[in-house]
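[#protein-structures] MJ: dropping THO complex subunit 2 here for a structure pass
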Amino acid sequence: MPSESEDTNSIDWKDWDGKGRCAFFQAFKTLIGTMGYVHLQGKQKNSTLPKLLIKLFREGIHGSLKSEDVGEMCIVLTELHDEIPSLIMDTISVFDAELSSQDFVATDMRQRLKQILLYLDDKWCPELARERLEFETLAEFNMIAKTFHTKFIKIKTKLYYKQNKFNLFREENEGYSKLIMQLHKTDSKPETIVSNIRSLNGCFSIDPTRVIDIILDVFQSMPMEVKFFIPLIKLYMPEVNLLTEVIGFRYATHQEDGVTPKSLHEIVCILLHNDIFTVDNIYPWLSPHDDDIAKEVEEMSLEEKSTKKSALLPKDDQKKDKQRLEYEKNQKLGLCEVAASLGSWKTFRMMLSRLPENYVIEKPQIAVAACQFIHYLIHKVYIKYSGFSEKMEICSPDFQPSPISENQPETFLEVSEVVFPMLYTLGAALRYDLVLVFKITRITSTVLSQIMNVPANPDSETMLERITNMVGTCLLPTLSNIEANCCVSEAIWNVIKLYPLQTRYSMYYNWRIYLKTNEVVLSKRFQGKVNAKACMKRVSKENVKQIGRLLGKLSHYSPVTLFDIILYQIQMYDNLIGPVVDALKYMTNLSYDVLGFCIFDSLCNDRREKHDANGVLPWYQSTSLFCATVFKKYNVDLSGILLYIMEQLKNNRSVDLLLLKEILQKMTGIDITDVMTDHQIDALGGGELLKAEAGYYGQQRNFKKTATRLKQALVENNLTAPLGIMLAQQKSHIIFCESQNSHLKFVGKLYDECHETLLQYGSFVSGSIMHDSYTSFPSIHELLLEYKLEFDTAFFLSRALIHSIANDQKAELEKKSNLKKGSINMTDVLFDIMETISESIQELYPSRHWDDISPQFVAIFWTLALNDISVPHSTYQKEITKQEQDQSGSSKQSRDDKNNSVVDKLNLELKEQQAHVKNILENLRKFKDNWFLLRSVKPAKNEMITQFLQLCIFPRCIFSITDALYCAQFIHTLHSIRTANFSTLLLYDRIFCDITFGVMSCTENEASRYGRFLCAVLENIMRWHSSKEIYDRECANTPGFVTKFRVSNEFSEPNDNVHFENFRHVCHKWHYKITRSLINLLESGEFIQIRNAILFLIKLLPVFPVISKLAQFIEKRINKVREEEKNNRQDLYTLATSYSGLLLSKSSKWISESDFHVVTASSAPADTTSSLKEDIDSESFSSQTEIYFSNSDPASPESSSKDSEKSHHSNISKDKKSRHKEIEHNHSPDSQQRDEDKTKAKTPPKSPENGPLLVPL
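AK: finished. structure tokens for THO complex subunit 2:
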């Protein structure tokens, strides 16, 4: 079947007389023959014939066809089908309506339609036209007689405009008086009264319209008689049109008078409430018109936006009077007010649906009326959930319920169903009744606390959701629209604080959106913004109190706006942090919580970069410092920031560690720094009390409250263990990922910062405040095997947990055995736990790895700490003396009691640590023979020392200051307890042989810790070097200083040990090695190597250099660095200048080489210092260095190892072979006498390159 477009396109309308006429007729005929119907057929199948006819008429009216052509074609088409005439008349009706509704009556198009109709009237079916067309159209086209038109108008006038005439002389006052009497019989049945009224109408010929008017008058005088008048009106007036017209006439009359009586609004509300008529019936009679209201709303909006500054000025009284008069004339607002005052929320909502909601709600009279009604509704529930004592009487609300008022809810669930929708509607308009605000907050806080403490159920979830919506849409907007009122803020906080963090922050986010988008609060927000900026311009240290009070007032009603401005200001000017933080002390709890949200939101949504690949940007440093200071000083919830930091660590954003570091430092007082006094460092090796009193710059007892809040936030959010593990894992990410896109100096600084944060966090977690949270950490087995942590971090995080488990097991064993407390030694339990830990360690490496060293030894090394193997007696005595001096200088009794308590606790802690260290040493002596397994082959010693350094010493000595001292002390402890198969001399030789790679591969802080470790080792060595008595007492005849390694069944000889003078030669060689390595680093020209070398020298300064010539060589190289870096790298120049001054201050303590060890005149040419001087003068120091764990000393026994031989150049290997021959000669039994003779003859000793050796047999 051809489509409509094809039928139309095939017709040539311009050539109508030629091809167009035939084409149109053929198309029309084809469609009728194909479809077989004209209008519809079957299942609503549309016909295309009407569209074709419309096209024909459109061309005749708007196009090129003549009126006669259209008329002729219509006459021809009627012969095709009987329904065609009806279809043609329908088409004419469509065009008639179209042209009548537009301004086309006097145009040619209307005239052309008239000509078509006239043609059809003459040629074809005028009866159908008279039947279908409008009467006005027929008259216009002269298709009906004028007499008929005149008669029609007369009949219409008689029906609609002619009134019935009553004989006013027959009306008597008696009829109206009897009517009024009947209407006052409210006790009678309405049916009886209606019958009597109708009798009066017939008897006295009373005007029926006047009867309706009198009924409404009486109803106005007694609006509460609803049960009587509503049925009466329904019976008397089943048709509401006349009733609404009478009421509308009354509204029109009062509109002219200016004031509409309240009684009229009351009866209209009652009639609407009882569905006598609808709002649509009465709304058109009310004034003003909706267009006027819309115009007024638009003008108010423009005024708010364009005259923001007017919000800062007091409103004119004349303007207020004008607004009051306009409100009294507004019948729509008056009807809304009466509906609210009567308690008909149904009627109120019907009126509100036809008016702008804010326009109605923001009127004080309407808001107050609605609040009074809500007072009445919640009264019963308020008595139950107010939180007051039952003996306290609660005043009844000042609201008289009407017959159409809502019923009072009995339960809170009913309140949430009935009252909360009203509160949603009121929104910020609740500010007009603050008493109601307090009532609602008391009810919701009581109910919410009960909901949070019971298992979830459908009713509780429904109530929780409704309360949440009410807080966000009503309470918080109300707070923003009132003047500064801290009591309202605290009342709302009593509700909000019961929600979890995510819900609270979601509320604050929506609150911020409300402040930015709602026009009602626009002026208030602008006022707060202007005042906040003014305060921030004036804030300083001198006016903190004054500005703080102003900021406190601003925070009561606009905290989000205020804190956004404060954060922006402190990010620009970091010197404002101190005064601003002090000025925040007048805030409410809600304001502090909003401050936490604003900080959280600023960190999350700030698109600025936090670092520039060279360092952290100032704005983020300021934000971090401000955040930490605020959290320390005020009770702000830490959960949001901790969760943010955790999320950032998950996303490998290491820069945010600065925020965590600042928080830990401010709230716990734990500041990890290498700039510490010797007294502080020694105190870190004591107990918890000594650490708190002397280990940090701040007194730890001053941070107890803030540290407890931090602990509470970590425990509540289950972050104690995850945060520590993430910090440990972040170190590896910094090394392998951050270094790809950032400068090496920044990566090293970032790594140190991450490590310091880990140390801070670990120190806090292992402290006394977190003692009840140890169990939240995974076991050491899980940390090592599942989380893949290194030994240092895994044991650092678990060390406190291990001691806690030991104490618990000890207490449990004592309880089971019915023993007294303290009967079981805790160290025995601790060593049993270490045995279990060793099994986990053993799984990490293949079995051949444990051929030379036992996993039990590794577990003991990593489990113990500095306070387990040493007691800082002098530090305890200094601190006790200090506390006693404070006590003597104080006159207050409370201070005396406090100091006495601290002194007693320190004495007790000292005794406990002494006993603990004694027990630890006894257990170490018990197991010392099982740690190092001596094999029959020569490389056994080499492998054992290598594994000990790799697994234990090197990872831990750079972890922290206390760990560096622990490593040095642990080596000394192994020597002191005469550990079997452990060579102290060989270990020291391996440590000092070449420190080049060890120093250059460290970060800045690690270089300082490595220096402290070697300084502690050298202190012990130099103590042995200083006196033969000390050396003989502590080193002679000890396994650690054996030079000949024998199989266990061989007899040990006295001369197997190193003698004192030979030991001094070895010490000189070690000093030479250290000097050579450090000068190599200083000559490298690389920033990292030079910086680490200088830092290393600074930490070694107490014990190195002590030989004057070596010190002069170092000083010369340092001065050269100063000259080269003076105008290039200022940080290196400053560091070198600092060390140069420190080195010069030690020059008086330098000694000559002859005082350091025995040197004769004949040996001077071969003196190592001379050769070192030549090397330095010629600047031809060998750059050849060995791998970190290989032996670079050709005189040591490890040089015979195959691995060591492969790592050296051939010339060094040849030199080794010649020296080994000399070694074998010097230490053979036949050469012992020759050695004695040489000693007597004072043969010059070998140079450090050929010093005394450790020779295995």
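MJ: nice. The first helix runs from residue 4 to 9.
AK: one more thing. The mean pLDDT is 80.
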